[in-house]
Amino acid sequence: MAQVHPIPTLPAVHAQALGLLGDTQTSIPELGHVVETDPALTVSVLRAANSAASAPVTPIGTPGEAIVRVGIDITRKIVTAAVVNESFNRLDHAGIDTKELWRHLFTTALVADASAWGAQQRSTAFTAGLLHLIGRMAMAQSDPQRYQRVVESAQTGVQVLDAEVNVFGYDSQSWGVEVARAWDVPDEIVEAVGGFSDGSIGPLAWVTWNGRRLSSALGIGDGVQSAEMMDLHGPVTDEDERLLAGFGGAEGLIKQANWMLSSVTSTPKAA
Predict the structure, then answer these.
(1) CB-neighbour burial class of residue 245 (10 A; exposed 0-12, middle 13-18, buried 19+)
(2) CB 260 within 8 A of CB 77
(3) Is there a contact between 86 and 12 (Cβ–Cβ < 8 Å)?
(4) What is the DSSP letter of 183?
(5) pLDDT averaged per 10 residues in sequence order, the chain, 271 residues
(6) Could you tell me which of 264, 136, 184 has the C-alpha nearest to residue 18?
(7) Which ranges of 50-94 would DSSP assign to H, the alpha helix?
(8) N or C: which end of the chain has fewer CB within 10 A?
């Protein structure tokens, strides 16, 4: 595919963080060292550790202490989200409802994680769910005025990928593959980014699609279209209920997604 827009580049520390997150053997000191070298990553991890949900006995002031408090698995998720948020922080200029987009990304990622199997696969599934709309975010960030036309078209009922082709000549799913490859993410995640719309390419694409489907069934849109317009909605199944039980029900899933959202996107209070 011909490159139309520049692919967003990752700062070195963010690229290093993503590389560590793909390794289940990464230690707390290794991850803490990378986090503390970047203010945005530090703020996100400290905010998560000092939130009411984490219930710290005393305020936590260092990334290492924060990772111990929330656990390395949750830290991986928060850091991944913080990297994405820092890379695409002007999406509202394109008419995207960024809060709803992030609710969609987190619920999709959490469901994908819960649907996968094995420690490595589950960690990778969360990342795939979080990154699956990376192409959309890259297009909207680099050309917000044109992407506003995509949003306007999609809100009349045109499916987003079709609206993107009409405006840009290509869709965000194919562009997302280019961005993911440039960011040097694992091949299976690239595969999921390129196959999230129907889940037919492989296991990670399927769990990502399943996360999108259940997120939509719970009434969460994707920041461009409402859940009802996403052509994914349907009743919550018995299997879905069993999966949701692991989160404490649908409310538990949404509560966890909102907690992650507040950790990554809240504006820090002034000291």
Answers:
(1) exposed
(2) yes
(3) no
(4) T
(5) 66 78 75 86 88 69 85 86 87 92 94 79 82 93 94 93 94 92 87 84 88 93 90 82 95 93 65 32
(6) 184
(7) 63-70, 72-87
(8) C
For the chain, the domains span: 12-87, 90-265
Helix (H, G, I), strand (E, B) or coil at 81: helix
The reported pTM is 0.88
Is 44 within 8 Å of 82 (Cβ atoms)?
Answer: yes
Amino acid at 34: V
Query: From start to end of the chain, where are the E strands?
Result: none
The answer regarding whether domain 90-265 maps to CATH 1.10.101.10 reads: no
Give the integer Cα–Cα distance in Å for 269 and 153: 38
Count Cβ atoms below 10 Å from residue 222 Cβ, excluding itself. Answer: 25
Are the CB atoms for 230 and 217 separated by under 8 Å?
Answer: no
- Whole-number Cα distances in Å, 143 to 94, 111, 146, 149, 219: 8, 31, 6, 10, 28
First to last CA, the chain: 48
C-alpha torsion 184→258→210→248, nearest 10 = 130
120, 127, 168, 240 from 97: Cα distances, Å: 32, 21, 20, 26
For residue 239, the model assigns a pLDDT of 92
CB atoms within 10 A of CB 57: 6
